TrEMBL record:
Gene3D superfamilies in the record: Immunoglobulins
InterPro entries per record: Ig-like_dom, Ig-like_dom_sf, Ig-like_fold, Ig_I-set, Ig_sub, Ig_sub2
PANTHER family: IMMUNOGLOBULIN, MYOPALLADIN ISOFORM X1
Superkingdom to which the source organism belongs: Eukaryota
SMART domains per record: IG, IGc2
This protein's name: Protein tyrosine kinase 7 (inactive)
Annotated Ig-like domain residues: 22-129, 136-223
Length: 231
């Protein structure tokens, strides 16, 4: 109280309107110095969302401006990340020896903690657009079993190669590429339909597919064997 009155008195004519407690001023200055001091932790590098190939390596980077007293850790889908041989923290970065399309789906976030001040800073989330291609077999889709295949009836085969982005598929019979002219090819469903299958259509059917992740052929083939009617 004494201080306030003294300040007021010293200010003279202007007084009354300006009642500033010097202790209050000191407190504000101290607070500003402290708060700018703690705000010094800033990311100079944050993990970025990126394309990746299943089975290949990748790296998510993280860095703060002043690494003094900083401890880094990573979160995956909000959970602390457990280091493994395949995926582990290397310095401040997160290293993937081989990206896995299932295990590495979702969000990765870098956490920088100042152990002296106790301040914790979270980076933005980053995720992978994982490209992959996986082989599969050729199966009979219609009719439901081989026993039900009839002469002059439709037959539909399905190619079980899958991937991201969606692979484009090609069909082969006895090693010869099939075209849309002779067969009904549905790229979205990855099916091949023979509208009216006869013994002329007999042979070994397989498919191959490609996308940004590579090129593979089916890992099991389908043999069409229609018994002709003996007139
Ligand atoms: C990052 O994603 C996780 C879940 O995957 C979420 O809990 C967290 O709030 C997100 N962080 C930011 C900064 O958006
Ligand atoms: C499928 O057929 C192709 C072409 O004849 C052949 O190269 C491949 O080895 C066959 N695959 C299987 C799994 O039988």
């Amino acid at each position: 109280m004494d201080l306030t009155t003294e300040t007021e008195n010293r200010r003279g004519e202007g007084g009354g309107r300006l009642r500033i407690d010097p202790l209050y001023v000191v407190a504000i200055i101290c607070f500003q110095v402290l708060s700018t001091g703690t705000a010094a932790i800033q990311f100079t590098r944050e993990p970025k969302s990126q394309d990746a190939l299943h089975g290949r390596s990748a790296m998510l980077r993280c860095e703060v401006s002043d690494p003094t007293d900083i401890t880094y850790s990573w979160l995956h889908n909000g959970q602390p990340l457990e280091n493994s041989e395949r995926r582990h923290q290397e310095g401040s970065n997160l290293k993937f020896i081989t990206v896995d399309r299932r295990q590495d789906a979702g969000n990765f976030e870098c956490v920088a903690q100042n152990t002296a001040m106790g301040e914790v800073l979270h980076s933005t989330n980053a995720s992978f657009n994982i490209k992959w291609l996986e082989s599969g077999g050729v199966t009979l889709k219609e009719p439901i079993s081989e026993r039900e295949i009839e002469n002059s009836a439709p037959v539909t085969l399905r190619c079980h190669i899958d991937g991201h982005p969606r692979p484009t598929c090609q069909w082969f019979k006895d090693g010869v590429k099939l075209t849309e002219k002779s067969h009904q090819i549905n790229n979205k469903e990855r099916t091949l339909t023979i509208k009216s299958a006869t013994p002329d259509d007999n042979g070994l059917f397989y498919c191959c597919a490609k996308n940004a992740a590579g090129h593979v052929c089916s890992n099991s083939n389908f043999t069409l064997n229609i018994i002709g009617m003996s007139n």
